[in-house]
Known about the structure:
Structural class: alpha/beta
CATH class of the domain at 236-385: Alpha Beta
Strand content: 15-25%
Number of helices: 9
Bound molecules: adenosine-5'-diphosphate
Number of strands: 14
CATH architecture of the domain at 236-385: 2-Layer Sandwich
Mean pLDDT: 87
Amino acid sequence: MGPQGYDMDMDPAVPKPQPQSVPADQSQRKVGVFMLEDDPTIASLVQDAVEMQGWQFIHRSTCASAVEALKSLKPDIVLLDVNLPDGEGFSVCEALRRELGLSTLPVIFLTSRGDPTSRLRGFSAGAQDYVTKPFLIQELVARIQAHLAIKDREAALSQELLKTRLHDRVRQDIMDMVVHDLSAPLGTVKLTLDMINSRGLVTDPAYVRYLKSAENSLEYALVMIAGLLDLGSGTVRVETHPLDYPALVQRLQKMFGPQFEIKKVSLVFEVPAAGFRMVSDQTLLFRVLANLISNALKYSPAGGRVLARALQAGTGLRVEVVDGGLGIPAAEKEAIFKKYHRVASGPIPGSGIGLAFCRMACEALNGRIWVEDVLPQGSRFVIELPSL
Ligand code: ADP
């Protein structure tokens, strides 16, 4: 019910609500303010203020007609009185949230019931705000504006989230396609190279070198593709064996030697003390280290140095890949392990999937991976793996 015998008109000391300028792109559609109110004086006061803002005013005076109207109307905000001839405005708010599914539509209660129980009832029915009568019309307009701004921000955020999801989906589809289309021809190249090797078809030392270089590049491409496949499927298969760390280093040296030479970066390995034994997945560890070493080279200046140091840690292994490159800003240290995340200012092209694979693989091996700063400049990627 509306208040009796008090003045709810504008406070002359408070500036009048100013008409809002409607942005050009929104000029087609007016903001809709829906009001459930059985007191015609209050409804008309609010109508004037609302229309002065260039908004559309929609009014109902019973709960039943309000619920009916809200089934088809799409207002931007709802103002609800509580005491109405056919019930309480709380039930309209509840119906709007549950039955009509309008979970994000802002609702403000506008009522003479100012006791704490009623206020709590209003919020638990799903309201965003609760204003008691008598109220200052300027304040009500300001509240409506604030709730509309929040609603716009939330809508923009969820649009952004949707776009990012769509973007990630498209990227994943493209990756899947590329990986699928590359796997078969690269497999044929591998078979061909293996055949040339096993039959000793190339004997000239210069060509043997070229052949080795082609094999190394192919192995690297296959490692990257395997990572993409794992990331795409969201799982990695783990096969445990006793680890042969020196053999793993040999394979990495062979694969990366030429690339490091070309960029004039030195690659130094330190291996665990003799007699070190542990059980893990050698191939998975190889692929993680290949990604880390490849990044260390990519983000190192020419003439730099990359150290891949492995040492026993309890019954497991700790490997550090240290470079003197760009380093990682503090705010990015966790984010770089997320799929597609790249440091924004990074000048070097890449896909942002290598480290996401490394994190997934280390977790599959019950281990951890993180990055630390190196002084005066550079990064130290650390992995710790237990014996499985
Ligand atoms: P990519 O290198 O293909 O972009 P990654 O997932 O391997 O993808 O790395 C994610 C991001 O982390 C990179 O884009 C880069 O910004 C940063 N990063 C990774 N390794 C290094 C490193 N050794 N030094 C500096 N930045 C790095």
